[in-house]
Structure formats: C-alpha cells, structure tokens
Amino acid sequence: MRIDKMLANLGYGSRKEVKQLLKSGAVKVNDVVVKDAKEHVDPNKETVTLNGEAIEYKEFIYLMMNKPQGVLSATEDHSCETVIDLLELEDQVYEPFPVGRLDKDTEGLLLITNDGQLAHRLLSPKKHVPKTYFAVIDREVTEDDIHAFADGVTLDDGYKTKPGELKILKSGLRSDIELTITEGKFHQVKRMFEAVGKKVVYLQRISMGPLALDETLELGEYRELTDEEMELLMEYQVK
Fold first, then answer.
1. Would you call 103 a catalytic residue per the annotation?
2. N or C: which terminus of the chain carries fewer CB neighbours within 10 A?
C-alpha cells in the first residue's frame, strides 16, 4: 500500500500532515529514507520506522471489552457515550465497531473489531452462535421456567424464541441464573423472563461463542484478544 495511506490509517495525521512528515525525512523503509508519499510498502515484509522507532501495522484489530452500564453499543452518538469513546485514540484509528449490541444498562463481554467478515459470521442468524448471560431476577426462578425456556417462550410481539438453556444458580425472592441463547432479539433476555412473569434487575453477558469474559477486566476496560482466543475465534468461524 502507499506509505502515506499506511501512516494516515495508523493515525499519524491527515494525508497532508503525513506528506509533511515524509518530507522531513523522519520515515524510513528498511533503513532508507522515503519522502515520496506515493511510494508503496509492504508493512508485513518491510520494516517501517518513524524517527527511529518501528511502526507496527495491522489490518485488523480485535478487542474484548467489559462493557459498563450507561454506555451505548454503537460507534457514535450525539447525546450518549459509546463503547468506541472508551477506546484509546491509537485503537480508534482502526475504525472498529461493536460486534452485535448489549443494551445500555447491560454489562459484560463485548467484542470490538474492524473485521467485517468476522462480525458477519458471528452475527448471522444462520450461525446460531450461543451467548451466555448471568442475570439477577426479581422473584423465584423454578424448574417450570427451565422447561419453559427449553421449549422456547412466546414474547410480547408473538414471536416464539428458539430453545434457551436456563441454569438456576440461586433461587429465592431474588434469583441468580445463567441463560444461554442462540438469538439476539431486541431485549431478548428481559422479554423472555417477562414472558414467565418475572423481571431482570441485573444483566451481564459472560460469553459469546468461544470467547469468555476476562474477569480481570474492570468495567470499561478492554484488551486485545490473546493468540489463543484468536485461534479459537478463527476456528469457530468455519464450523
């Protein structure tokens, strides 16, 4: 790719600013100064340095975030903070987006990437990618609810959900549960419990496909996926 495009993509300035950077002689490819903005470079095979420091180029970025409440799963919004606003500028320059969405008041695992093909595979209704949630329910969750969810429940708009796997972790006036579903209907978990006369008071996504939430991530924190997680994700795509 053109050297000016590469540097601009990595956030080193606009095309105009990058051209000035090149003219200053600060950029080298394989230890040779490059001043021509039209010069082509293969960042995967050649070493590019800026003021003596190597520049790491990657086409795609894959981030795991522990999404906090009150933040939108969107790329931009005029009135509310989005998950992209929580990213460092060095990550924002890749123009990533959230894979799917978590409700504003829902916490937990959110994958953020600029790999559209991967996102499509994970979000395609045909793939039935499982998503597991931890929830606190106002009222007692019972064996009857387990059977109802296993059969699929009818939501307020008449849609019958695909089977969900409900596990009761603690049952009482407030119950702790885990629920695995393979769909992503609007407010689905909340509406499934409403269908059996109960209310979700806290909701957290703890896994999506092969990815599990890193419990060491504080709310609002994120990190790049590990090599092992990337391998799991890429293998999972082709199943």
1. yes
2. C
